[in-house]
Amino acid sequence: MKRSGGNLDRSSAIKPRSDKRAKFMREVRAPLVKRLRDEGHPCEIGQMLADVGHDRVRHCQREVQGLHERRKRSAGGSLIKPENLVPACNLCNGWIEEATGEDRELLLELGLIVRAGDPEWDELGKAGDEENVDG
């Protein structure tokens, strides 16, 4: 059976991370995550789930491994504004990305997912990020 269409039939390689994005991740985001880890910050998502009695908390790795973006970068979310970033372990952050149904509704209620039209939408955008990173 021949497979056709979709992303599986790519004729070109996936575009690598731009030099500018790689530099940003290396010089800004990675040091931020390292600082949070060194200071002993916990995964805040796991704590929020524990506070509401959600059983997903049992999978939390407890330590910061990255940052969850409440307004996604693909939706114009800031990569540096503290209001948009939630210290997270990889399992909790991955769970948020895949959540559906009642779980997704809970994440919206907790403010872990922000959508267009929400009161914080504009505040969490990337406007002004360049000035804050470069100067």
Summarize the structure.
The chain is mainly alpha-helical and 135 residues long. The chain has helices at 19-38, 44-51, 90-98, 101-110, 129-134, and strands at 66-69, 85-88.
- What spatial order of strands do you see in the largest sheet? 1-2
SSE series = HHEEHHH
Oligomer kind: single chain
Average of pLDDT: 88
**Dominant shape:** globular
Q: Could you tell me the number of beta strands?
A: 2
Give a quick account of the main beta sheet: strands, pairing sense, barrel closure. 2 strands, antiparallel
Q: Number of helix segments?
A: 5
Beta-strand fraction estimate: 5-15%
- Total domain units: 1
Q: Helical percent range?
A: 25-40%
Q: Report how far apart the termini are.
A: 56 Å
Work out the radius of gyration.
17 Å
Helix/sheet category: mainly alpha
- Are there runs of 5+ residues with pLDDT below 50, and where? none
List the keywords:
135 residues; mainly alpha; two-stranded antiparallel ribbon; 2 strands
How does this structure look, described?
This protein is mainly alpha-helical. The protein has helices at 19-38, 44-51, 90-98, 101-110, 129-134, and strands at residues 66-69, 85-88. The chain is globular. It contains 5 helices and 2 strands, in the order ααββααα. The protein has one domain (18-130). Strands 1-2 form a two-stranded antiparallel sheet. Helix content is 39%, strand content 6%.
